[in-house]
Specification:
The complex is a heterodimer of chains A (304) and B (432). By secondary structure, chain A is α/β, with parallel strands linked by helices. Chain A contains twelve helices and nine strands. The model of chain A has no long low-confidence stretch (mean pLDDT 95). Chain B is 28% helix and 22% strand. By secondary structure, chain B is α/β, with parallel strands linked by helices. Classes of the chains: A alpha/beta (304), B alpha/beta (432).
Chain lengths: 304, 432
């Protein structure tokens, strides 16, 4: 099977075959990461630009390293140092970078659809590295990869996603990916942070964490942001923690071999205590390593 | 100069007439309507197999002049109107400066007289500077020629001010036109709140933002006994509220736009900024209710909410792009496609909602074909379909959601005040 796409904008529009192709391709790149020489010549001569209009550590470094492991040249661009401050539009900024003969743009933006705007107007590959609350497809794919690595499969698993679903692009990408591959997904959070009609995406909504965790194979914790207090989504972070953070007691509701995931960065002590973030069930750092392999696979499939 | 329109099917909802007739126009006026009229020296339009309708009347146009002449001017907006079969358009006051004083009203009349090709009737603001804080000088605005009052683009949040506006407007017998949107509920929203806003991660505007505002304004219309017109109705709940209000004999009328009938919120899924409108495109269920409302007469008129924006403003991230799309040149065809072809309205009923009904709401003697009336007419070929092309818009802005669509019904001639102001056949346009 060939990957016949110019861009990777979301998981929603990917077929099961396409998802499996990316995950299988990632598996071979994952092995490369264990070698003493962690570099392959696959994308030699290709140029990729990181366009980050929103702060990011993990995703930006992960894409950077993925490109380098494939021997591509990489440009880094972040909005604070750019002409965006001078009033240049997103499209114009991207066109100018494209004019430097770049083969692909990796785009992180605070507004949903920003990568789609570029994909519509530009002939080069656009990879969505997170657009507002819309999607974060490579995060979704690396989550699928990490679950499959630990559990051997996705189909039939029960997965709980807990936290601020409304503002989470990771939740949306995970939901599409997991449900397409046959997992049962529950989302849980305060009702103010569960978007309307999300059931139609094929998930179950519960407000009680214990109920959400019951019998789950996987729990994905999401970050809660301070500013949700001022906008009255929640009264206080303190209260949020009491209801929605994970702790030893709540863990008992999970299956004994259940794993804990988090897309990072973790608010230690808020949604996840340090002890659990670093504990034996946590696969948070595996997610980070697998992220490189998955992003290598995406770049490889789009650019060769 | 005289014009003779020969053997067209005349459809005039005001008189319920539907017959093959000749129409003779002399000196801006419909001189004679009848069979086999002869007139030597008149310019003859052969309207066989064509429909002749009253020139369309739009209660909701944004002409952008003064202030945003890069988006639209009175010249280009009226050319677009003529192409769409409109001969009278009411321009909304959210210009810069806003239409909140007689000077701006006079400026618009003068510009329209000089450079416009169809009639332009300004709507004045409800509040001074459209700020929602104190009343504009409605009396002086009326004296200078406004046909209604609206803070379009913003709801008058202060209920007491809205009450006073409704009461005060009573002495002029002009409607208060309300843009119903609770700004606290719609805050930051850029599309309908529902499944698609959830999928796309875009902040939503719930239907309730409109319904709450409509409920309050209907209550105030009942309290004051004044004439209220609800702009661009988009929700099922809104239709129900107005249906009930009409049963209670509250003096309310309302409009719907063609785009709220033709598109639902799923259209946003590719982040095309030409689907960003306010109120937002709603769901299939809302569209059904709007169509029911049209059929039952709950919704009186169809208005375009023609809202031009430049290419630069639309080639942006969805959230950053301004609300609004153009509509004058596609309105009639969309009405035929969405309402007449599926049998929701007869052609005559649809035309009533684009001619005589809006004329009655603002109390103007337009929208009918009658001997002695102003010669505002359009000749339409219903058997022709056409493709919407960006480069063919007369509007200065090209922000249409319908580019690429094939639509039924082509306006072939538009006549305003006895002059041909649009014709596909350029020789008729020698006067420009």
């Amino acid at each position: 099977m060939k990957f016949e796409r110019k861009d990777l904008l979301d998981i929603q529009s990917l077929s099961v075959d396409e998802i499996n192709l990316i995950l299988d391709t990632a598996k071979s790149f994952r092995q490369v990461l264990e070698r003493p020489i962690k570099k392959v010549p696959t994308l030699r001569g290709k140029t990729i630009a990181n366009l980050f209009f929103e702060p990011s550590t993990r995703t930006k470094l992960s894409f950077e390293l993925s490109a380098k492991r494939l021997s591509a040249d990489l440009l880094n661009f972040s909005s604070s140092t750019s002409s965006v401050l001078k009033g240049e539009t997103l499209l114009d900024t991207a066109k100018n970078i494209m004019a430097m003969k770049v083969d692909a743009l990796i785009v992180r933006h605070s507004l949903p659809g920003a990568p789609h705007l570029l994909a519509t107007y530009l002939p080069i590959s656009i990879i969505n590295a997170g657009d507002g609350a819309h999607e974060h497809p490579t995060q979704g794919l690396l989550d699928l990869y990490s679950i499959r690595e630990k559990k051997g499969k996705i189909e039939g698993l029960s997965v709980a996603i807990i936290g601020d679903i409304t503002h989470s692009r990771v939740a949306r990408s995970d939901i599409w990916g997991l449900t397409k591959l046959g997992a049962k997904v529950r989302v849980c959070g305060p009702p103010t942070l569960i978007p309307v009609e999300i059931e139609k995406m094929g998930v179950e909504v519960v407000y009680n964490v214990e109920e959400a965790l019951a019998g789950c194979d996987v729990v994905i914790m999401l970050r809660i942001q301070q500013e949700r207090q001022s906008a009255s989504f929640i009264p206080t972070i303190l209260e949020y923690r009491e209801f929605f953070s994970l702790d030893e007691r709540k863990l008992k509701f999970l299956k004994p071999d259940a794993i804990i995931m988090h897309p990072g960065p973790v608010n230690r002590g808020v949604e996840l205590p340090a002890k659990l973030a670093d504990g034996r069930r946590s696969i948070i750092l595996n997610q980070v390593t697998n992220g490189i392999a998955v992003r290598m696979a995406v770049l490889y499939l789009l650019l060769t | 100069m005289s014009i003779l329109i020969k053997r067209g099917m005349v459809v005039d909802p005001a008189s319920h007439r539907e017959d093959v007739l000749d129409i003779l126009i002399e000196d801006k006026i419909i001189k004679k309507i009848g069979k086999d009229i002869k007139s030597y020296g008149a310019e003859v339009i052969d309207a066989r197999e064509k429909i002749v309708i009253p020139g369309l009347v739009d209660l909701h146009t944004h002409l952008r002049e003064p202030g945003r002449e890069d988006e639209e001017t009175i010249r280009t907006g009226t050319l677009a109107a003529a192409k769409g079969g409109f001969t009278t358009i009411c321009c909304m006051p959210n210009t810069n400066p806003p239409i909140d004083n007689p000077t701006v009203v006079k400026y618009i009349y003068r510009e329209a007289e000089k450079n416009g090709v169809v009639e332009v009737l300004p709507v004045g603001t409800i509040s001074y500077r459209r700020e929602g804080k104190k009343l504009s000088e409605m009396g002086r605005l009326k004296e200078s020629g406004v046909v209604g009052f609206s803070d379009d683009g913003s709801w008058v949040v202060d209920s007491n001010l809205m009450r006073r506006a409704l009461e005060y407007a009573k002495m002029f017998n002009l409607p208060i036109i309300s843009h119903c949107e609770d700004p606290y509920l719609s805050k930051d929203g850029v599309m309908n709140e529902g499944y698609w806003s959830t999928v796309l991660g875009l902040p939503g505007i719930p239907a309730e933002a409109e319904e709450i505002a409509i409920f309050r304004d209907l209550s105030l219309a009942r309290l004051t006994g004044s004439k209220l017109h609800i702009a661009h109705l988009s929700t099922r709940g809104g239709v129900e509220l107005i249906r009930k209000a009409k049963q209670e004999n509250i003096k309310v009328s309302c409009e719907v736009t063609p785009h709220h009938l033709a598109l639902c919120d799923e259209a946003v899924k590719n982040f095309d900024t030409n689907t960003k409108v306010n109120p937002p495109l709603r769901t299939g269920k809302d569209i059904e209710a709007l169509k029911d409302g049209l059929r039952e007469g709950v919704i009186d008129i169809i208005a375009t909410d023609h809202a031009p924006h430049t290419q630069e403003e639309k080639e942006l991230e969805y959230s950053r792009s301004p609300f609004g799309i153009i509509g004058l040149e596609t309105a009639l065809s969309l009405v035929i496609k969405e309402l007449v072809e599926p049998g929701i309205l007869s052609f005559m009923e649809a035309i009533a909602k684009l001619t005589i009904n809006p004329s009655r709401i603002i109390g103007i003697d337009r929208g009918k074909i009658r001997e002695g009336s102003m010669a505002n007419l359009a000749v339409v070929d219903l058997s022709r379909s056409w493709q919407v092309k960006e480069e063919e818009f007369f509007s200065l802005s090209k922000n249409s959601a319908f580019i690429g669509w094939t639509l039924p019904g082509k306006v072939e001639f538009t006549i305003c005040k006895g002059k041909i102001v649009y014709s596909e056949d350029l020789e008729f346009l020698h006067e420009f």
